[in-house]
Amino acid sequence: MLSIIVPVYNEEENIECLVAALFEATKQCGPIEYIFVDDGSQDNSYAKLAETAKTNLLIKIIRLARNMGQTAATQAGIDHAAGDILIFLDADLQNDPADISKLLHKLEEGYDVVSGWRKDRQDNAIKRNLPSRMANWLISKISGVHLHDYGCTLKAYKKKVIKGVRLYGEMHRFIPIYAAWLGAKVVEVPVTHHARRFGRSKYGLERIFKVLMDILVIKFFDRYFYKPIYIFGGCGFFSIILAFFAYIWALWLKFFKGISLIQTPLPLFGGVFMLIGFLCFLLGLLAEVLSRTYHESQGKSSYIVCERFNMPEYCDEDL
Question: In terms of pTM, does the model score above 0.85?
Fold first, then answer.
């Protein structure tokens, strides 16, 4: 079954055209459901969706109590989807529903995640395109998953590769990274991008800072979630080394330059760095305790099994 998930926020002018385009693009796709997640729209988006849903039982609507952001809307769609394949796209008609078949064909080739690439992006070159290119380059370098366009909502997933994923902040755009780290095969395909016809963009330049902070969080989870003492202990060790050099420098000034310890701030710096070092070690130990509590209390494993052979006592749900 195919689940098409569309987050919606103040897109009343686009609803009718979007639904018609989706029906036309997916009429040959077999069993299907359309999940629209109204993210606390302040216009008539929900009313228009509800009116459409009255005449078509394939349309399902989730209405959030208030505007909680695209990540929360995406998570709601994932949690309520019944399909084995999930496809996401924006409600602003900048994504072309006709490209859905292109994504599905790539999934049939054996890929687990197909990410759209707005190769000919119809947005402002300075305010949108340039910052996006810079952010995509940085995200690819940090994550090791190289995509040209993380911000394109038009993506297709096999549900099994994002099962159990929990999204926060602005992390909906990083689902391909989560999937790749879990062993999924990720591919990117060029898709059509249209200029916005109605309404206005919900994103500004301030989003760049949020995205960068989220990618740092994801990188931390990837590298240090199971052994947080490594990063906290590393910072603590570096701070203690700085304290050691500050003390050595202060003593060198005293014995070879005749400068008293009270005439230089180096002893104070040494004390501060030493204190920071010990606090980092203590935070690392606390993080280790929390990490073990998280895994043991929820039965979480520190490894991921992708296949078992001749072990009938385990079912596919365990994978």
Answer: no
